[in-house]
Amino acid sequence: MVASPLTAINGERAVVFFFVFRVLSSLPLSLLPHALSLSLLSVFSLFVEIRADGSLSLFKTRPGASSGIMLGAVTLPTVMLSKLIQLSRAFSLQQIEIGELEHMTMQFWAASACCCGVLIFLSILMWCAAYNKNPHFSCSVWDAKFSLSCVILFSVVCCISLATISHTGFNTALKLLWLLCHGFAAVKLIQHLLNTFPCCASIGEALLLTSGLVLYFGDMLACTISKVCRLLVSPELVSIRYGIKRSEIGIIIQGVLLGLLIFSAVFKFVIHLWEYFSRADNSESRKNKEIRRSLIFFASLGFTMIVVSPSWMMIVLDFDVHPILWIFQFVLSEPLKRLSLCIYWLGLIYASVLRFYNISKNSKIERILLRKYYHLLAVSMFLPALIYQPKFLDLAFGAALAVFLVLEIIRVWRIWPLGQLVHQFMSAFTDHRDSDILIVSHFSLLLGCALPIWMSSGFNDRPLIPFAGILSLGIGDTMASMVGHKYGVLRWSKTGKKTIEGTAAGIVSVLAACLVLLPLLASTRYIPTQHWFPLLIAVTTSGLLVAYTAQLDNAFISLVFYSLLCL
């Protein structure tokens, strides 16, 4: 079924198109192939979303959410392209080396390959459903020709661009094979996520998560392969180092996340093996089995975090000392400031969680509004640290993400004795966007604040970029919800809850925060080169996306705002 132009462009799609157009209009001529590929990806994703709307029976997605395919498909490639624009400015000023620019180019094409691969997969699913006479799907010769044309043009542009990257030891065929692996891995991963965790995410949210995970862990795999080839084969045969020089904190965060990935896979395999051989023993009580399972869990987790993960960091990424020892040395290098900040964080978390937990149990306040207070908590925690201790905040974000992941694993697998307690506690803060299978809102808030800070490490000529998540989520989204809930009258749509008053309050509050923040940054370490008209466009675009999107906005808003601030 082909939608008319008027019904095809809704509010969310219009904002996404403007977001992509704003980035493309800022591109230098040297990035023209990238602009063409992103344009093709945007049109292809819109085409797939229109065909999929109203017929999402392919997967069990989050109730109440639209497919979000277009938003999920263009967000990460556009973020990579915005970063590439920023690095192009740095290279023209001789602030970075050519290798860093080439690495970001490969990251852009890898993100685009992930999204394009998933779009092709969704198109094939809909074609198969139409071929099997599914009444929800229709397929025409024009649909097939249009999709095939987009894919072919995208591949040609990709080949032309990659041929210009002067990586010694990596010819164009190997680069294309590497991108093909990214696309295949993204397809397999999104299938696994949507089938293993039904009703937990929309297709767009799963697509953003999938492309991000494949991109991040693919970079780790490339570094590992490169290092192994250097050690076992010959340094001359692998003269390229896939990647850039990483900071110690970035290496630690990568190592911890890799360790948790390895741990989850190994623990699941060990448990299945143990249950298979212990089936014959029916005399053992259920309590003893849970205790033994818990001992295996914590023992394997400790071994992975203390031995396996640090070994990877020290061998592959040439980390000089054991990461745990380095963390102690880093914290104690400025003990008064950093330990005081830890005490401040712990006190604030304890008081806030205790207060809000009691309110959530006994109050009739809407859960989504109650959770906005945690956005304000994020502002009060992260903003002072980002101004005065940015490197320590980088490390703290990594530690918080690791703790959240471990607690979610414990909750999902019901690891004794904490599994049920964590589940009961976390359930007090869920809303309609979470499920019993997977609780993701706290992850999206943490990553929404952390990703702009992590991605702004290195060269940064825009002072507000690291604050993109804190401003858009902690201030803008919070004020939009509170003002819209209390004073909102004029709604953006008849069926939605978002109001014009709330959106205006969110935009004005972010602009006011920027007005206060820029002079403060100028007095510390930044030179305020942020122009106000591009800032107004960035704030307004992200505010309108909050108003129109039905996706988990924490996952998208900060990335959109970050991309626009890079220009």
TrEMBL record:
Q: Which GO terms describe its molecular function?
A: dolichol kinase activity
- The domain of life for this entry's organism is Eukaryota
InterPro entries (UniProt xref): Polypren_kinase
Parts of the chain that traverse the membrane: 31-48, 69-88, 108-129, 150-170, 249-274, 295-316, 336-357, 369-389, 395-416, 437-457, 463-483, 504-526
The residue range of the signal peptide is none
User: Which top EC class is named for this enzyme in its record?
Assistant: transferase
UniProt KW Transferase keyword: yes
Q: List where in the cell it is found.
A: Endoplasmic reticulum membrane
Q: What is its EC number?
A: 2.7.1.108
Q: Which GO terms describe its biological process?
A: dolichyl monophosphate biosynthetic process
Give the protein name, as stated in the record: dolichol kinase
Q: Which residues form a coiled coil?
A: none
Give the membrane topology. Answer: Multi-pass membrane protein
GO CC terms, sorted = endoplasmic reticulum membrane
Q: Which family does it belong to?
A: Belongs to the polyprenol kinase family.
Q: Does the keyword Membrane apply?
A: yes
For this UniProt record, the keywords arranged alphabetically read as follows: Endoplasmic reticulum, Kinase, Membrane, Transferase, Transmembrane, Transmembrane helix
Q: What is its main location?
A: endoplasmic reticulum
